[in-house]
Amino acid sequence: MSALLSFIGWSFLPSLVTGWILSFWYRFITRAGDPIPQRGTPRWVRDYKRINISVIGAYLLYTIYESYHGIIHTPNFYAFMRSNIDVDERTLKSKFRRLTVLYHPDKVGLGGEEQFVMLKLAYDVLSDPVKRFAYDRFGPDMLDWKHCSSMYDYLVRGGTMMLPYYAGSLLFLVILSVLGKAEFGRYWRFFTFFCLITFETAVVTRPAFPSLPFFAPLLPFEQLILARKIAFTTFIAISQLAPLFQSQRNTGPPTVESMRPQLERLFGFTKFADTEASNLLALDFLPYESDVDAVRDVQTKMKNWLVENTVRNDPEVRDAVGNVLKKRRTGVPSGAKGNR
């Protein structure tokens, strides 16, 4: 359920927040009377990409912190026993005796019965080295594994429980690669996936579990829950960033091959326009088709008009005419210029 809610949040929150921030930013920096950049303009696209990348990165960090915060505030058996995760057997027994006296139903009434049952269950698991080994690595799920009696049995059962999760995830990544989907970040997806498998295998099989730096002490199964959530949200973040970085790559200098479709369409349009212009010109000459002199007269006038128009629009001709007019006006009295 939490994964579904996280996916729903990723589907609309980054774009929604980006739109709000961009709108506020433009209203803040734009002076009164100046136009605000509109959607689709180069500046709007550039600013949207930058803000969206920042929002996705910030939301990724927030989801990781939220996952960590939820894990450390979910009580485990050590929290019920009010002990550290490295508590020894003697200290554990002493704490259990004090807590059972404190929460015994004869003392606190029926309201403490549930707490007393949890204390008894936690002590039974943590006082047994084999069950404690399994609980540290697989969490409360190991309570349902009735036919396991050794560490090996628990490891085999835990491996069979993890296998469908990783097999399904790997199959999903392979299908995306074969179909050509999610090309951006494909290497990092597979790299993160195999890093997660390596980390989980090391955490489960090692006799002493590692501690994560800059984090409060977490049990191995809590570390694995956090690692899976980080991998899941990272995959989604990469998918969100893919269109942004792909569009940035496509904004490089155009090549002949990339412009070939546009050039072919432009050539086809030019050819079509030339054909239509020829047909319209032939249609205009249709009334004069039987009058050879009139057609010749129109052709001569059009030719002269084209020559004159070309000469007038030529920069060198315009400069020469301007110089001649300037020389003619030189030395002419101001009154004479006005009379002209």
TrEMBL record:
J domain ranges (all copies): 76-139
Gene3D superfamilies in the record: DnaJ domain
InterPro entries assigned: DnaJ_domain, Hsp70_co-chaperone_J-domain, J_dom_sf
Ranges annotated as spanning the membrane: 6-29, 50-68, 163-180, 187-205
Keyword Chaperone: yes
Keywords, in A-Z order: Chaperone, Membrane, Transmembrane, Transmembrane helix
Cellular component aspect of the GO annotation: endoplasmic reticulum
UniProt GO molecular function: misfolded protein binding; protein-folding chaperone binding
GO BP annotation list: ERAD pathway
Ligase listed as a keyword: no
Name recorded for this polypeptide: J domain-containing protein
Organism phylogeny: Eukaryota, Fungi, Dikarya, Ascomycota, Pezizomycotina
